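Lab meeting, item 3. Inverse folding demo.
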């Protein structure tokens, strides 16, 4: 595939950009001291699943640029929608004003929940949506005279972002521990991660065991608990830890029984990533298929197709109504300057258009099966790995501790670069989370290069 030429060619080389970046940009999620060994790839342009560096090297964006990209880079439909929006309205504040992209997006997302979640509150990054959901839950209880409900429950190894509130419900030591003294205390309960199955135990059994632990906490503490927050179906930053949907049903029932809000963080797993538009759709009881919903649902990343920072929180009418009052201070006064940015909302509408007009999920099932088969062919019986798993457009396996060696993730990432792949394992978990435009050629490329990277990494010694 050819990538259009850079419209503003620069005389700088890849090495120049790397050097200048290290000298001036404080990179996220990075120990800057490692930059000499792991210099940033200077990307000049991108098209479809391909990223092209200034030195001409091409990389398959196998993790969708931190799980945000849905339809590839420089998607014609999203580009066209954005260009039109740019000439119409680039931004206006959403307090005291409104605009078509925000209204239409809120209406269409609510319709996708069968209007179970009636209002959308807009923000920008995922962590802001989590902050909003936590504040909404607490404040709505307070407005109803239940201000004692101020504690939150989160799952072992769950991840909800890196701002102070979001970190307080995140249980990933490497991100959280340094800031622990600053954080509010949360209850951390067993996650339903199916990898914890004891001999003879199934994934639903693990899910029920985890739900029982939550039930015990609710039994003793529900009067003080505002909400439980979880990532439905896949705890991504935990290392693509997958669980059976029965967990979501059980938690929904417990929250109803004990009067606790359920916050679904679909920032990573929403927008079709797990096989349904909202991951929570899979929580419906298969016997009657009656949909069930969380009280608050956070969305970000893929909703704008990976183009612009956009996050949002969908809420039930019950929570929304708890803020209606003559007293201004009982309203939800939270705001961000770029809340509901028209360009970001327009990109999101173009994403929804694709879901409405194209068989995106069906296509993902078909092309996803190609990647599953290609990986199975190459990984079957490989004793160096364990826990090969997949849900929707997420594939993962764990490299056994005994063979991984030191700095496995970094070594794998660097070896992958040489294979034309952009992959950043999480600990010993190698995962693929590609854009939704896989074809047979891509599937073969990904499987072949991933296994070649694995071989190179494990052969490179420790
Ligand atoms: C489940 C989940 N919640 C929240 C976040 C935070 O989103 P952001 O990085 O946009 O703040 C992430 C980011 O990876 C995530 O995976």
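The presenter then showed the designed sequence:
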């Amino acid at each position: 595939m050819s990538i259009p030429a850079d419209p503003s060619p620069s005389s700088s080389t890849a090495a120049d950009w790397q050097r200048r970046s290290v000298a001036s940009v404080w990179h996220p999620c990075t120990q800057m001291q490692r930059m000499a060994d792991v210099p940033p790839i200077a990307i000049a342009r991108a098209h479809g699943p391909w990223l092209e560096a200034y030195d001409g090297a091409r990389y398959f964006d196998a993790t969708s640029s931190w799980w945000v990209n849905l339809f590839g880079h420089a998607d014609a439909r999203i580009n066209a929608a954005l260009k039109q929006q740019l000439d119409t309205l680039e931004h206006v504040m959403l307090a005291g004003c409104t605009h078509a992209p925000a209204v239409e997006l809120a209406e269409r997302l609510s319709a996708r929940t069968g209007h179970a979640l009636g209002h959308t509150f807009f923000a920008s990054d995922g962590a802001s949506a989590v902050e909003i959901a936590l504040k909404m839950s607490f404040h709505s209880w307070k407005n109803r005279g239940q201000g004692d409900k101020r504690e939150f429950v989160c799952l072992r190894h769950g991840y909800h972002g890196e701002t102070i509130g979001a970190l307080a419900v995140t249980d990933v030591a490497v991100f959280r521990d340094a800031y622990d003294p600053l954080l509010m205390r949360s209850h951390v309960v067993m996650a339903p991660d199916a990898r914890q199955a004891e001999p003879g135990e199934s994934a639903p059994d693990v899910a029920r065991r985890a739900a029982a632990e939550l039930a015990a906490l609710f039994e003793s503490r529900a009067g003080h608990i505002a909400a439980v927050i979880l990532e439905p179906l896949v705890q991504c930053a935990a290392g693509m830890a997958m669980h059976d949907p029965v967990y979501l049903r059980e938690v929904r029932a417990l929250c109803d029984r004990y009067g606790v809000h359920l916050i679904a963080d679909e920032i990573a797993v929403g927008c079709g990533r797990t096989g349904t538009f909202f991951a929570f759709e899979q929580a419906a009881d298969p016997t009657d298929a009656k949909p069930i919903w969380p009280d608050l649902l956070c969305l970000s990343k893929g909703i704008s197709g990976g183009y612009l920072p956009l996050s949002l929180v969908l809420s039930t009418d019950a929570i929304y109504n708890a803020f209606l009052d003559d007293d201004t201070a009982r309203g939800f006064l939270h705001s961000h300057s770029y809340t509901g940015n028209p360009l970001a909302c327009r990109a999101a509408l173009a994403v929804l258009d694709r879901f409405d007009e194209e068989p995106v999920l069906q296509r993902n099932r078909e092309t996803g099966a190609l990647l599953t088969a290609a990986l199975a062919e190459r990984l079957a019986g490989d004793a160096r790995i364990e826990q090969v798993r997949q849900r929707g457009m997420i594939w993962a396996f764990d490299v056994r501790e005994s063979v991984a060696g030191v700095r496995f993730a970094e070594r794998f990432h660097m070896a992958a670069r040489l294979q034309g792949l952009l992959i950043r394992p999480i600990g010993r978990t190698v995962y693929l989370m590609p854009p939704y435009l896989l074809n047979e050629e891509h599937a073969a490329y990904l499987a072949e290069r991933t296994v070649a990277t694995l071989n190179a990494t494990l052969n490179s010694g420790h």
